[in-house]
Structure formats: C-alpha cells, structure tokens
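We give the chain.
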Amino acid sequence: MRMWNGKVPVSYTHLSLDELVELSGLTLQELHQLVDSGALIPNQSSEATWHFNSHCVISIRTLSRLKQDFELEPNALGLMLVFLERIRTLELQLSKH
C-alpha cells in the first residue's frame, strides 16, 4: 500500500502516468503534449511503462497553477516547464554554496 504525505508518495521515487495526472492538476492530454515536446521525459520510452521521477511533481504542480492563473495556452506549457526546471536546478546549486 502506498503511503501519501499529502502530495507525493512517501518512499517512492517514480510515479506512473496516472499518478502524475492525479497529483499534477494537468490533464492526461497536457502531460502527453509535454512528453511529446520533450519538456517532460519519462524513465521508459514505451508509453505503456512510462514512469516519472517524483521530483517533477513540484514543477508540474507549479505549471498547473500558472496555467490556471495566467490562462496559458497549451503550446506554452512545455517552455514554461523547461524554465521551471532550470530555475529549480539553479536554486539547488545556489543552496549548495
């Protein structure tokens, strides 16, 4: 049984596509578009076995909120996700120094 800490499964590092839909606030179609654009990269290339690193939930949820708040077009989501991940990476690098 999966234990949830309110947002992300505890002690799991990978999420299925269905779990990501449930946690993200984005639709299945929007997540497919993100994968198709290369902005979101699953751990396996076969759609039937797509799993995603759980760390992406933070960026995906932020993306979902920005989409709703600013009424972003679907084609802008991929670029926005790339920017969010880049910001997260830079913040992590700064926190190590």
About this structure: The radius of gyration is 14 Å.
